[in-house]
Amino acid sequence: xxxxxxxxxxxxxxxxxxxxxxxxxxxxxxxxxxxxxxxxxxxxxxxxxxxxxxxxxxxxxxxxxxxxxxxxxxxxxxxxxxxxxxxxxxxxxxxxxxxxxxxxxxxxxxxxxxxxxxxxxxxxxxxxxxxxxxxxxxxxxxxxxxxxxxxxxxxxxxxxxxxxxxxxxxxxxxxxxxxxxxxxxxxxxxxxxxxxxxxxxxxxxxxxxxxxxxxxxxxxxxxxxxxxxxxxxxxxxxxxxxxxxxxxxxxxxxxxxxxxxxxxxxxxxxxxxxxxxxxxxxxxxxxxxxxxxxxxxxxxxxxxxxxxxxxxxxxxxxxxxxxxxxxxxxxxxxxxxxxxxxxxxxxxxxxxxxxxxxxxxxxxxxxxxxxxxxxxxxxxxxxxxxxxxxxxxxxxxxxxxxxxxxxxxxxxxxxxxxxxxx
Length: 422
Ligand code: NAP
Fold this sequence. Notes:
Layout: E1 17-19, E2 22-24, E3 30-34, H1 40-58, E4 66-69, H2 74-80, H3 86-95, E5 97-100, H4 114-121, E6 126-132, E7 148-154, E8 164-165, H5 170-183, E9 193-194, H6 200-216, E10 221-226, H7 235-250, E11 254-256, H8 262-274, E12 278-284, H9 285-294, E13 301-304, H10 306-319, E14 327-331, E15 338-342, H11 359-372, H12 375-390, E16 393-394, H13 396-399, E17 406-407, H14 410-419
Parallel strand pairs: 3-4, 3-5, 5-15, 7-13, 10-12, 10-13, 11-12, 16-17
Antiparallel strand pairs: 1-2, 6-7, 6-14, 8-9, 14-15
């Protein structure tokens, strides 16, 4: 229940603030949302109804979200000529926490990607992607129930920094010339050049966030995933900085399995029996891809650089039913800024057809409720999604691979999830 401002008749909401003890959301946080393009409005309608109902149920009406619609993508471009209006960016900046549906990527100039722009401008340095299987969801692997992982992907640098020069341009030719003179690197004039920055600061804050989260959530291990055997000073450095940080800041809570210290080996033996310390290990990205398929039970939290994380989180999502159900968030754990999002795109061929699967956005909303400190509502949402899928009442994408399923529209699926709360 909201109190309304008498002059403007807008709901009175609590500001979300970041304190030394973490995020404080109050009982009526104002949260900006972007419906998104394509299937965005369909899945947002379903997700919002589920989230509101879960919060109302969990807190008997004492808490509610004051939603604030903001615009980006095609709709914003049509109305304002801008893909990402300054007012939208400002709303996410001011309110700290927001949520969004998928956005179409502008074709032919302007912003390279709206999602990447938001992540960079708000310095949302962690891309968080939990991956778990809901019983009944069609999966291409025999034991999807063994997949229960959380990917911490670095979100601000690596090849996503956008430092690229097209082949044959003056810039590329001059840079190639400089690199040839300075380092003897042979780069021909027909070569596009990209730069992969991986800094100590960005690597450390990503690994710190993963370790803290893993400890807070009682997880078993954090694996630093890298390609350091080949890219020694970027991916290899990420691995080393990760281990160094783990020892320096979490030495009394973790066991590092990089073989660097005898003491760690002894601690590792202890861990094997009492399981009280978080294990920090590392693995080379290409081997991780095959082991996630063959031995998923050996992996828990994965911390990795940007491009590895991009590939890994989609590959893992496929193991548990595809991008229609994979939730995600982009977070800065220092400032508190966070944008929760559907991880799939706008699926334009289903736009406005009330067909798409809203699970990714619904479950991203559950992650948001957790982040606000409302875990009771988050659990209600997850359990209701699980129950609904268990009843084989699913959208077209699951129905086509599920025996005996009832194919539901987006809205009907959302209503059934809301009805299954609690
Ligand atoms: P996409 O929109 O993710 O759709 C690809 C296919 O994935 C769909 O045709 C559909 O497959 C399936 N799919 C995606 N979301 C689904 C859902 N909720 N329910 C059921 N099926 C779903 O990828 P795209 O076609 O490559 O990209 C379209 C636009 O989205 C582009 O402009 C792209 O840049 C943008 N994009 C945005 C984001 C984001 O905002 N985070 C992410 C990725 C892409 P079937 O037809 O086989 O059923």
